[in-house]
Predict the structure.
Amino acid sequence: MPRPLASVRARAALAATLVVSFALVVTGIAVIAVLRHNLTDRAALESEVTARTVAGAQAALTGDFTALDLPDDRDRLVQVVDSGGRVLAAGDALHGRGALTDFAPAPAPTGTPSTTPTGSGVPTATATTSDDDDDDDSGDDHGGGRGSGRGSGRGGDESDDTGTEDTTTDDTATGAPARGKVSTAVDRETLPVRFDDRSRDYGFAAVQGTTYDGRTYTVYAGTSLADEQATLGQVTRTMLVALPFLLLVVAAVTWLATRRALRPVEGIRAEMAAITGSGDLTRRVPVPRARDEIGRLARTTNQTLAALEQSVERQHRFVADASHELRSPIASLRTQIEVADQHPGLLDTGDLHHDVVRLQHLAADLLLLARLDAGEQPAHSLLDLTALVREEVARRAPTDRVTPEVVADDEALPQVLGSRGQLARVLGNLLDNAQRHTATAITVTLARAGDDVVLTVADDGHGIAPADRPRVLERFVRLDEARSRDDGGAGLGLAIARDVVRNHSGDLTVAEAPSGGAAFLVTLPRAPHRTGGAHT
């Protein structure tokens, strides 16, 4: 049973939906917060404008608070309170209520009304009294004459030496504005007000003023936040309703886009499955027009298929050639054994031994080629190529038809990195080929070519035509003059030499020798420099 999220399309759609939903939720919260802040600030600004309008009215500055024209609806609340906390005037919505004291600090001691400034420097009332009690105080109809306003502004200190009142108090001396002025400071606060057992939030602003006769008063103006809250609720509900539909659209678009993007991948997969089922390596996967990652994947897949096809063809050709080469010595051995079985006196042990040795060499060559094809890496040993050449030539001298001449540069050659046995096999194969085709002389030359070491084996035979030089290094290839079974070999010696040299990061090429014969050049990189005084 397939898992729900087993496909790339499903996982991509889910991931995109989750990311978008998270982003939308965070963005929605930020939008609601910014919108709430802006709406609240707008309401507070409206309250401040109302408070300043009332505080700066002529009736307020003259002390005739009953003549103030105040709003009478519940959307805008206005209340005027003196420095002692008594309500001097209020709109119809606040008529009969006590003073708004939420802006003020803790009440002052009894008999000392506090006018201590709040955080913004506006002194506010701390007492909560009713309009009906205004006549019980100092006998002033407005809850305080010049003396009470001055006393509240100076914290109750009335020990003036002259016994007269200072009528020039201002913001600097007492924190209250000058006479006939309105303070530039304002306090803002969001407060709940209850009407008919229901609470409504208002954005209040408090502004202080001073009458011409020196009495201080505070105007509280509030603007209802009901419209703002309704707007926020509507925006929130709209976002919550739209969010699922938007996420559904995102998921659908992501699903379709991913499906379209992965369609070439499905085509590649289907073609690879068909190639695997049929075994036809000549087929190729479709390459999309877009030059993107999927296009590069298709091209790389086709390159891999081409390399695999060549490898399989080479393997088939190798098996066919090996079977052909093995058939002759095995058939010869069988024939000689059958003759010896019928006529023991006719057994030629020399031919039998020759066929067995040839079969042994062929099996060793095939095994070495198989290891090279499997990617076997050579040993990484530092080798002195000059010493290796001299030792190999000396070892072969008793059996060689022509003794090779070794020529090395006077300058000490750098060492190479590789397998001693495999490089000795390369030299032996090249010398065997030279012994087979030379007339009178074989020369082995060692020289430096930049950072490389070049080993050249040259003979004075008939040479190799330029057109045959690349082909002579292929497996089971023997030129016309070398097709004799006794002299030509199986055609694997030069191919083995080339593969071994390439496995050592070098190359084997064929050129014309100065004497007119063939010259085989083995180019090997010098060993990298090693710290600690290693020879380079």
